[in-house]
Amino acid sequence: MTEIRNIAIIAHVDHGKTTLVDRILHQVNLFRENQEVQDLILDNNELERERGITILSKNVSVRYKDTKINIIDTPGHSDFGGEVERVLNMADGVLLIVDAFEGPMPQTRFVLQKAIDLGLKPIVVINKVDKPNCTPEIAQEKVFDLMFSLEATEDQLDFPTVFGSSKAGWMGPDWKEPTSDISYLLDEIIEHIPAARHKEGTLQMRITSLDYSSYTGRIAVGKVTRGQLVPGSQVSLVKRDGKVVKTVAKEIYLFEGLGKEKTKEPVPSGEICAVLGLEGFDIGDTIADGEEPEGLTPIKVDEPTMSMY
Ligand code: GDP
Question: Is 129 annotated as a binding residue?
């Protein structure tokens, strides 16, 4: 079975998240411009305006050295609707991108705090080291001080640091010695971020976010944390108030590159997927099966709010 790494990206706006994700896609020979559009998804803002809800499902997945890396986007703004906590719950580690010139910014602090509290291991990427007069070592020290003040554990404080330039297309251990590509970063992810855990038992998958297809309507996105999710199977939705509703997980999609691919295979625990055809679901519900379907401990889901990014 393919090993999986689920990693959430944390970055202050403009520190280079988009450029880095593009580079990662390039490194594994996937290009945004060539990506086939798998299903028509309404422009997020449009849908948000229409429904007044936060839509989030910008997962990108790449395959590198027999490992699947699911890259989970985190909102850079403060935590409207409990979104940050929900998406971080799918991650097994975080990639913290910091501008070598600016250092960590207040906006990153909030998300980083949640990641630290959830016990996630960070990899720090000091980006934009090509900028004149940048101070990568100072940026790194500031990240350390910030994590210390956020009461990171010794293990979290022992974070690996990768220096580089997403724009120039390299990442390495030393900012003064450019490498030829960003494989060093991908190797560090595989080495330091724990593999997604398999957990035997009856199915449990918390619905973390929504996606939308104009053909089929609402799509539930989340991570299978126990058992497996079988396409076409009867499942139970355990609502946040404990009520149980029977429905069918009609179609299941896995994230591949920038899109999604339909799968006929059972989705194992540890993997993130999108489920189509579930009736009456809400964010925060647990998809479960068995005689006595068990819900996962509820996580904060506030009233829907507009996303700010
Ligand atoms: P995001 O808001 O975090 O997604 O940031 P972007 O990836 O959109 O980058 C913001 C700006 O910084 C863009 O103008 C990028 O071209 C620039 N940028 C990103 N990475 C680098 C880098 O490594 N070096 C330099 N000099 N500029 C960069």
Answer: yes
